[in-house]
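Handout, page 2. Input:
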Amino acid sequence: MNINILASCTLALGLMGCSGNSLNNPLIFPEEITPGEPTDEGDGTAITASSPVVVPDDLAFNLANAKIIRGTGGDPDTLLVNISALDATPIEATWQRRPALDIPGYQAFAVQEDALDRLFIGLAATSADGSASAVLAGDGGQFGSYFSGTKYDREGAYTPPDATAEGPGRGQVSYTGKYAGLLNGGGAGDDLLPIPAGRPAAPSEAPTQATQITGDVFVNANFADDVVNGIVKNRNAIDLDITSDVGSANHNDGTGVRMEDLNMVPTAILANGTFGADLERGPIKKVVGTYGGAFGGTDASSIAGGVHVTDVYNGAGEKIENALERGVFVLDQCGVTASGGDCIGTAP
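Output:
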């Protein structure tokens, strides 16, 4: 990864001038494009045990649907994506597998039809028992705007664990898994197609690459109280490239840029196993976004969900101006399909 901003500008933009890639430049983290239509029915129907999983608008945003298509006969997997953006044609476009962009726990997919089109990245994961899955998709911005969204769902029936009996691991359970996030720009740009030499381009005309964020998620749920809460921790912006100042907390020395933890505010588990509430900064009780998710499988064996971070802070507690983040998590239940790591010390 090239973390020298002057060099990365030269490589990415050819003969085009470099503005310094400062986060004070709104073109680095441009405004979101509000989708024209909601992604759920929004008819006020009461939630019941048979109600489907509906991703809230602020989490789904531009992403209407996404599904991994498993490869056969040695062919790689692909991602079928319906995003209200400018990725490719047809409406449900096929994004190709990009192993070089994989992050822990997630397969990566991408599409960029030419050097003057947006580079879209998709990150997808499925729980250990196949009962829950999530997809994150987004670009890094072009023409002062960007597109992104999350999709999470479950396969088959969902049943909560027995919360009437006493003892550990009954109705009080824990979950662990990996996090994947994308910032609206700021990436090093190593995966962008090069703009041909001699092709003039205005600063906002050149597409930019989304920054990938890795992390871990730990969740506790109680199915007697029907309440869930948790944390997104160990967040690391692995390819953030916004400053060459080695004294800055945003400087990437090749190992990434540490980001602040996110607390999932306790909230109710609805009758169909879905939930959602605010995200707060780990060190203080300040709302910085929202999260949502759904339980899946027998005895709620897994969780899939998404987050939307509207105020992004690095590990030093400094707000990264103009940055926005969407992310997903896929979790397995401790003592059922997960063990070790964050499951150590949990019951059963």
